[in-house]
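== Item description ==
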Amino acid sequence: MIRQWRALTALLILVPPLDAQVLAGRATSLIVTTPVPAFSAAAPSAFAASPALSPLTPAFLPSAAEGPAGVSILDALREGGSPEESAGRISFDGSEEFSSPSGAIYILRPFKHPAVPGGIALVQSQPAPASTVRSVPGTEGLQGEALLDKVGQIAASHQKTNDYRAASHYIFKTADHLMIGGVSGVVDAYSGVFVPGNSSEGADYPETGDQDGDGYHEKNGMNIEHLWPQSLFEHKLPMRADIHHLMPTFQHPNGVRANLPFGEVEGKPDYQNNAGAKRGGGFFEPPDMTKGRAARGLLYFYSRYKKSSFFNRRVARFWNVQIETLLRWNRQFPPDAQEMRRNDLVEQYQGNRNPFVDDPGLADLIGAEALRAH
């Protein structure tokens, strides 16, 4: 595997300009720090920032391309096989930057691990343009509490209650299973680390060394983060298995967040990682790549379950302290192509959609005062 990564490094740095597929081997992971390329839909929106984008297609390395050790890059790094489809394509122009057709910019960053000397990671340094949105029928002309109630009704419509273990398997195998450069795997939502694999079990996506730089080697892989902590809804169904507020994360940052509200950490944090996740002052701050998604997951949960019996004063305090922050993150980090696609996949599985992913502008039309729990 060391030979394989030396070969990849040599190929990426020395070859003349070409369209190159970036691949990941089993011994390392790509790191994604900002959202994937944007999605384009029919409905115009204030959140739209780009024209329609064509679907991205895979680009394959020349079959003759070999590293100095004579190892075929394509064969070595796709060891074990991966889906033929690719969610992303990048172009190498001979400089230190890569770009995707959508306009996202990538850079190479040295990857430190004793078992992989000379390893590199692909890091997205500039995001793709924001996506347009899908209108939500039945919300036209509404605002405030009337709109909040309507969104809650829409969110509950056709929802099926599923087993938690089955929902977890669906997350790892389908809803949050990505292809980056033709290699399938899962991205940890709190660090941006992409772990290759095809399993439905979170334990099969371990961290290779301390890839996220938080001082902890996550040997046990990933588990499921509940954006709305389980202790605040008594671990009950359907909330526990509602994929619209669930994310795959490494187990350590998941435990660090615990049941803290989200917020922007000021001063010196008592936990942080390379992606920008941190904890301090009674808040947990996810990395930028996850802030919009986390905000829309919590907005969904509140609108969907605000009339449930578990909503007591403790739950209200957890929610109210972060409303303004969530509204801001929803504006700053609108849905991208992957979040739109995920909404479709979750609907296929459990029957309902997150209206705030379809139209993030609904949140500001509802407003902070209507969102406040009493």
User: Anything to note?
Assistant: The longest strand covers residues 119-126. The radius of gyration is 21 Å. The CA atoms of residues 16 and 94 lie 6 Å apart. The chain has a mean pLDDT of 76.
